[in-house]
Write a structure and sequence with these properties.
By secondary structure, the protein is mainly α. The protein is built from 6 helices and no strands.
């Protein structure tokens, strides 16, 4: 008597968790990029942030917004940003904190120390956008923070590939 084997569908736990990590990291990255873009546009005077950002940002964004209107580039009528930009300027700090946590979680699931590095880069990003008032310093620190995230992700990703390949 010959028994037949019916193949059962298998789910690869590594593959199913990989797309979750990727989606979590992407959601965090989109949120942080939206906050960064809103801050930079407000600094350039494209959208006004004098009143809106002053409520959450302390001295950093408020002084950036006032410097953009003093330079003549910020329109006087844009003191109250509305729509998506107003939302991002009002709740940017909270969105950025959540975004940093999502990115750190996604990277940290690949390698724990990489998650700590991602948190440090996120702290730099937060500091650059909300805790200081120099525009030049903000630009440099934002570029450094995103570069650190990219390098950290690539490092954690290469570690997973080496581990999955086994010892050589």
């Amino acid at each position: 008597m010959k028994t037949t084997h019916t193949p059962q569908p298998t789910t690869d736990p590594v593959r199913s968790s990989t797309w979750r990590h990727w989606a979590t990291g992407l959601a965090g990255l989109i949120g942080s990029l939206a906050c960064s873009l809103a801050m930079i546009l407000a600094l350039l005077g494209v959208v006004g942030a004098t009143t809106v950002a002053g409520t959450h940002a302390g001295g950093g964004m408020a002084s950036m917004a006032s410097s953009s209107t003093e330079s003549g580039r910020g329109p006087a009528a844009s003191a109250h940003a509305s729509g998506i930009m107003g939302f991002l300027l009002r709740f940017g700090p909270e969105i950025l904190v959540i975004s940093v946590l999502l990115v750190a979680f996604a990277i940290g699931m690949r390698r724990r120390i990489a998650g700590a590095v991602a948190l440090a880069a996120g702290a730099l990003l937060y500091w650059a956008m909300y805790a200081q008032s120099s525009a030049a310093l903000m630009y440099v620190a934002v570029v450094l923070a995103y570069s650190a995230w990219l390098l950290d992700y690539l490092w954690a990703r290469s570690h997973v590939r080496l581990t999955a390949a086994g010892p050589t």
